[in-house]
Amino acid sequence: MTGDDRAAATPGDPGAPRHVVVMGVSGSGKTTVAQGISNATGLRFAEADEFHSEFNVAMMRAGVPLDDADRWPWLLALAAWMATRSAEGVSTVLACSALKRSYRDVLRQGPPGMEFVHLDGPAEVIRERVSRRAGHYMPASLLDSQIATLEPLQPDEIGLLLDVAMSPDELVSAAVRGLGLCPAGAP
């Protein structure tokens, strides 16, 4: 945990926990941006990849895309984690692909008022980033399946669309500003 988790309460309901999901395909910068938001605001950070079962990780390492049946328990665990934090009065920011509307609907079964930051950009830019990563179990070969699966935020979903061409610092600033999050330590 970094800072005061209540630092980012909603303007209309002071003290209410906020829950932000930084979403996008592998290599879009979700973890970097979500950690940056956490550092800037005090929201408790979690990396959704850490919630995957050993079976799911083994499949991805082998270059086998997950199907919905593989993802449901993972998504439910993420929703439960955020709901538990919400019940504790703790705001969260989660780095999670959340590629389909149905996946985001499962996440919304957790805490109320979930907001999304969708990191998107040209496939070539993201592919180049994925190819430079070391030590991650998600191979670049699965990027095409993620791009094909991706369903952009719908008009009734609360969130922002940000271009991955921006620097990580610019993305964090745009997310904090765009969602009206309070900086850590702000009154």
What does this protein structure show overall?
The protein has 187 residues and is of the alpha/beta class. Strands 2-3-1-4-5 form a five-stranded parallel beta sheet, with helices on both faces. The model is unreliable at 1-12 (pLDDT under 50). The chain starts with 18 loop residues before the first strand and ends in an 8-residue tail after the last helix. It has helices at residues 30-41, 54-61, 68-87, 101-107, 123-132, 143-149, 168-179; strands spanning 19-23, 44-47, 92-95, 115-120, 159-163. It has a single domain, classed as P-loop containing nucleotide triphosphate hydrolases (Rossmann fold, 3-Layer(aba) Sandwich), CATH 3.40.50. Helix 1 (30-41) crosses helix 7 (168-179).
